[in-house]
Amino acid sequence: MKLTYYLIIIITVLNSCSRNSKEITETETHQKELYFPEINSVYWESTTTSILNWNTNNLIPLLDFLEEKNTKSFMILHKGKIVLEEYMNDHSNTKSWYWGSAGKTLTTAVTGIAQDEGLIHIEQKVSNYLGTGWTSATTAQENLITCKHLLSMNSGLDDRLGDGVSPDNLQYLTDAGSRWAYHNVYVKLQDVIASASNQEWSKYFNTKLRDKIGMTGQWTNLGDLSVYWSNTRSMARFGLLIAAQGKWGDTQIIPQDFLSEATNTSQNINKAYGYMWWLNGKDSYHLPASQIEFNGTLIPNAPDDMYAALGKNDQKIYIVPSKDLVIIRMGEAADEDNFALSNFDNDLWAKINALID
């Protein structure tokens, strides 16, 4: 009996090792298949819809739809190569546009980098880095708020008091972790990183992320908030970095395990939200400025494994691992002004599916 027991243990361990080895090999193979443009070069390798056997007849309807919906730029990458790069409505490849809340994911990425360097830990309370009094809550209430709560949008602070993040605008509503609410308080993570690294947020960001993957662009202060502006290819470079699980070529820039956390459900209230990444394929979701739980998936027409950075007035980074796609959209609001998600997402994915399926 003991011999049988030990044999079962050995076989289980060997199977586990074999499975883990297979997963590592598949990841490495995928990495080798990805194309990364040179950091200091304008050249970016491309492919075509015909080579990919996409439904080329549906390309013009997609582009017409995008132009009608106030789009300024649109890109599709497949395994890192450019399939489509289109500019319209008085925009060009040299012009910058704002990321809106899609840029929240830049803060997420740099938070992962700062944690990997030992400067911060997301499970630590924000007051450890900023001191007490960064909100209007009592010290006991404030000390409940960790950096992870800022990443997950469940700080418990009142989201109904406007966009400011001064202490007067950051008032206690409920204990951290008990309520999900889309809130600009996330920007305090930039202050956390600036304090921990003893340098300006933008300098740390540029050194640790932007310059390492050949992005351009800059942060522009709008009141208490910093909004990122760049050209479309810079947004595409960031999307490619995330799709590559934080690697650029052979260099791991964002820790892979942190990105895995960031692109999975981060709390038990809004299943469709990670660390400032929106997640498709969940059975329910919440939206900004609402406490209603909606049943169903976030964007029904999009693949279930798609996750996205969504910004004000339809700034988009869609990442689809199962199809090796990174998709970028910049522009004015397609229809009405919105914080992140809109009907445009689902309508756009109907057009994309008609092209790629």
UniProtKB/TrEMBL annotation:
List where this protein forms a coiled coil. none
- The domain of life for this entry's organism is Bacteria
Gene3D superfamilies the UniProt entry points to:
DD-peptidase/beta-lactamase superfamily
- List, for all copies, the residue spans of the domain called Beta-lactamase-related: 73-330
SUPFAM superfamilies, alphabetically? Answer: beta-lactamase/transpeptidase-like (SSF56601)
Q: Where is the signal peptide?
A: none
Q: PANTHER family from the xrefs?
A: BETA-LACTAMASE-RELATED (PTHR43283), BETA-LACTAMASE-RELATED DOMAIN-CONTAINING PROTEIN (PTHR43283:SF7)
**What name is this protein filed under?**
CubicO group peptidase, beta-lactamase class C family
Write down the species: Algibacter pectinivorans
